[in-house]
Recover the amino acids of this structure.
């Protein structure tokens, strides 16, 4: 029997099981929901609680079979949403935005890139940016870097009709949990992940200047800005893989962390 998969080895969303009980179950060798149901329940679980636990396990299995990502988003604490990603990689959108300011009430969104579903697409203000909400609606999982404090609030003001995916993994805080702090480029340099060929030295201030230069009629400035934004976005995927791999290894050393086959 192979090593268990991450989501199936997750118990913290089940009634009566917190992080400490989950860790104890792992130490006792409980591998997944089926194993838990088979009799490896926490000591002292009474019959009524056992019935509730079995019902919750059945609901988990049904949601996984149905591909109901939102169910897991509601069931799991937000800081544990990263556990959902390996099972639903192909339904994950990595996103980054460029703006002309730090506040959605003082600046505008200029470029947004969404990487996921087998493609990387960039949206540009004045061109096709209005298509972003419909495109993003295809994905139940959103991954950003500091997006909970910047990208998402900015987009919600720019697009009141935007429906944010039910699962949001903010890599800034996830990477902090494995000892990687600071900005995105600093973390990329620390771990040796990320390709920035052609946009070396570009930062947020330069991104604003490039947009202004483009608006004055210099098309190559937009090309450089889009390339920079795409690097910020596509580099999130290997960083999330790193974080998931490291956290999985710390929590459950016997976990199977091989990539799942494409859906």
């Amino acid at each position: 029997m192979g090593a268990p998969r991450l989501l199936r080895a997750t118990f913290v969303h089940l009634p009566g099981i917190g992080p400490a009980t989950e860790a104890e179950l792992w130490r006792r060798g409980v591998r997944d929901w089926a194993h838990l149901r088979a009799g490896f329940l926490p000591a002292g679980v009474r019959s009524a609680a056992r019935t509730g636990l079995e019902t919750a396990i059945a609901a988990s299995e049904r949601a996984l079979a149905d591909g109901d990502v939102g169910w897991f988003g509601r069931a799991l604490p937000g800081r544990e949403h990263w556990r959902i990603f390996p099972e639903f990689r192909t339904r994950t959108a990595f996103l980054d935005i460029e703006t002309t300011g730090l506040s959605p009430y003082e600046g505008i969104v200029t470029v947004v890139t969404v990487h996921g579903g087998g493609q990387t697409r960039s949206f540009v203000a004045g061109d096709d940016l209005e298509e972003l909400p419909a495109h993003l609606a295809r994905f139940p999982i959103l991954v950003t870097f500091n997006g909970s404090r910047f990208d998402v609030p900015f987009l919600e003001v720019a697009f009141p009709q935007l429906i944010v995916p039910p699962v949001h993994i903010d890599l800034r805080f996830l990477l902090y949990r494995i000892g990687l702090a600071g900005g995105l480029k600093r973390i990329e340099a620390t771990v040796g992940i990320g390709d920035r060929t052609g946009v070396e030295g570009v930062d947020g201030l330069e991104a604003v200047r490039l947009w202004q230069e483009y608006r004055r009629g210099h098309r190559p400035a937009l090309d450089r800005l889009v390339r920079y934004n795409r690097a910020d976005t596509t580099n999130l995927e290997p960083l999330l893989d790193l974080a998931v791999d490291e956290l999985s290894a710390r929590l459950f050393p016997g976990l199977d962390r091989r990539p799942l086959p494409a859906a």
In short: The two ends are 22 Å apart (CA to CA). The CA atoms of residues 95 and 148 lie 12 Å apart. DSSP finds eleven helices and five strands in the chain.
